[in-house]
Design brief:
heterodimer, A: about 200 residues, mainly alpha, Serine Threonine Protein Phosphatase 5, Tetratricopeptide repeat, 8 helices, B: about 325 residues, alpha/beta, Rossmann fold, Hypothetical Protein Tm841, Chain: A,domain 3, six-stranded mixed β-sheet, about 25% strand, globular, DhaK_1 (chain B), EC 2.7.1.121 (chain B), DhaK_dom (chain B), phosphoenolpyruvate-glycerone phosphotransferase activity (chain B)
Chain lengths: ~200, ~325
């Protein structure tokens, strides 16, 4: 079973890894975007860590809902509403239980990913964060480590794709050959989940 | 890359502090990043709120004032502002007659303004939205995020602002704004990439002797790269791209817009070529505006925007406006 503390560790681990990888995310965002993905997410997850410390929500759902709201209020761009919605909807799906099972977490995360697809209109293969998140959710039944591997492979597999959503889509065929920064940061989020679980 | 900044993290708030000092007719909330005309809310009149990433100045903050925007929300450089800013702006300017959100068509701007509209309506503010998507360089809109909002944003903000200033109701102001957007098309070229303060180096690599055709306003590369062209050739190509997509029956407003690092000497020379092509193609010009209005940091280059106007839209275009970036008739 996973409690609020586990979800706080997930968010803290995400903040640490986004901070560590910010330059790489921004570098990936330069040729096919506008060179700010790393700095925007760093600003967001730094604020998430601060607000979680201050408000100390005591349920898994409370942690993720608060984290999502904070991302929406601080990140801006498309990543703010998309990552914010992912965490907020996952948190809402977890309800107000003080502990949740791995199955409940997987189910809630799937609801969160579906909300992101509805909001952003992206489907798998559009070269977006969805290309890391959908395989991760599909693999979660086999454990956190499997989800991490699936997300990382999904992010790598965006390289040959042509972008159909977001700013990279304006480039048409010239977006081919670049790994998607959104799928890359989504893989960091899933890797942090595995790290929080000690896998 | 050398810039007159302190650190990248404070670029936007430093600029807002400077703007506050230069423009006592504006209320600039540096902490919450909202620029509001000081006399807001104006009784009985619809309010206009726009916003977007910073780096496009004078858009949008420079267009706040009588006859144009009521408030603007600047985001981080090239990053949409957040819903909290837009809700705060809407609450500050709403007189009870409602608020029009003017949104450039980028995924981030659309998502954040959509969320803000819901939150503002929860607070009892009547909100209408207009999406600006005038950039003809994005051709395959089924497989992209759709056409970008660029130069036409100025036309929408000015003309809808004049309609609001006359006391027209929200649905009418929104309809006029949509008409302006639907009547507008733009095409832009870049001679250099731009440098965001956070990255510190150019967003893409453009070798000497080449230019990018069909660029947006965020330092993203265009659809096509060619060997450098003359002003005459760039005007032919840009106007052709626009006229492939619209056949003006009425006279047009022309915006020859600099991207930030192209001198007015070049822009006026380019305008001469744009006017020549339009005359050759039998397109009548009602008014022309030349200058740096919808910029992309330090990018060199220019865009052309045409907006087909009837007598009503032309009258609203000519109406007085008093903002930091656009001012006439007052």
């Amino acid at each position: 079973m996973f409690d609020a503390d586990f979800f706080r560790r997930w968010m803290t681990a995400t903040a640490t890894s986004v901070d560590r990888e910010a330059e790489r995310l921004t570098a990936l965002d330069s040729p096919i975007g506008d060179a700010d993905h790393g700095s925007n997410l760093r600003r967001g997850f730094t604020a998430v860590t601060a607000t979680l410390e201050k408000e100390a929500p005591d349920t898994p759902g409370g942690v993720l809902t608060l984290a999502g709201r904070q991302l929406i209020s601080t990140v801006g761009g498309a990543s703010g509403p998309l990552y914010g919605t992912l965490l907020r909807r996952t948190g809402k799906a977890l309800g107000d239980a003080s502990e949740v099972s791995a199955e409940q977490l997987a189910e809630a995360l799937r609801a969160g990913v579906e909300a992101v697809m509805t909001l952003g209109g992206a489907a798998p293969g559009d070269k977006t964060m969805i290309d890391a998140l959908v395989p991760a959710v599909d693999a979660l039944g086999s454990g956190f480590a499997a989800a991490r591997t699936a997300a990382e492979e999904g992010a790598l597999a965006t390289t040959p794709l042509q972008a159909r959503k977001g700013r990279a889509s304006y480039l048409g065929e010239r977006s081919i050959g670049h790994q998607d920064p959104g799928a890359t940061s989504a893989a960091l989020l899933i890797a942090a989940l595995a790290e929080a679980a000690g896998e | 890359m050398r810039m007159i900044i302190n650190v990248p993290e404070t670029v936007v708030s430093d600029a807002l502090r400077g703007m506050a000092a230069a423009h006592p007719e504006l209320t600039v909330d540096v902490e919450n990043r909202v620029i509001v005309r000081r006399d807001a809310p104006v009784a009985g009149k619809v309010a206009l709120v726009s916003g977007g990433g910073s780096g496009h100045e004078p858009l949008h903050g420079g267009f706040v004032g009588p006859g144009m925007l009521s408030a603007a929300c600047p985001g981080e450089v090239f990053t949409s502002p957040v819903p909290d800013q837009m809700v705060r702006a809407a609450a500050a300017v709403d007189s009870g007659a409602g608020v029009l959100f003017i949104v450039k068509n980028y995924t981030g701007d659309v998502l954040n303004f959509d969320m803000a509209a819901e939150l503002a309506e929860d607070e009892g503010i009547q909100v209408a939205k207009v999406l600006v998507n005038d950039d003809v360089a994005v051709t395959d809109s089924l497989y992209t995020a759709g056409r970008r909002g660029t130069g036409a944003t100025l036309f929408v903000e000015k003309i809808a602002g004049a309609a609001a200033d006359e006391g027209q109701p929200l649905e009418r102001v929104a309809a006029i704004a949509r008409q302006v957007n639907e009547s507008s098309r733009s095409f832009g070229v870049a001679l250099s990439a731009c440098t965001t303060p956070a990255k510190g180096s150019p967003t893409f690599d453009l070798p000497d002797g080449e230019l990018e055709l069909g660029v947006g306003i965020h330092g993203e590369p265009g659809r096509e790269r060619r060997s450098m062209m003359t002003s005459r050739e760039i005007a032919d190509f840009s106007v052709q791209a626009i006229l492939d997509d619209m056949s003006p029956r009425n006279p047009v407003l022309v915006l020859v817009n600099g991207m930030g690092a192209t001198p007015l000497l070049e822009l006026y020379g380019f305008n001469a070529e744009v006017q020549r092509v339009l005359a050759e193609r039998g397109v009548a010009v009602a008014r022309t505006l030349v200058g740096n209005y919808v910029t992309s940091l330090d990018m060199a280059g220019a865009s052309v925007t045409l907006c087909q106007v009837d007598e009503e839209l032309l009258r609203l275009w000519d109406a007085p406006v008093k903002t930091a970036g656009l001012r006439w008739g007052v």
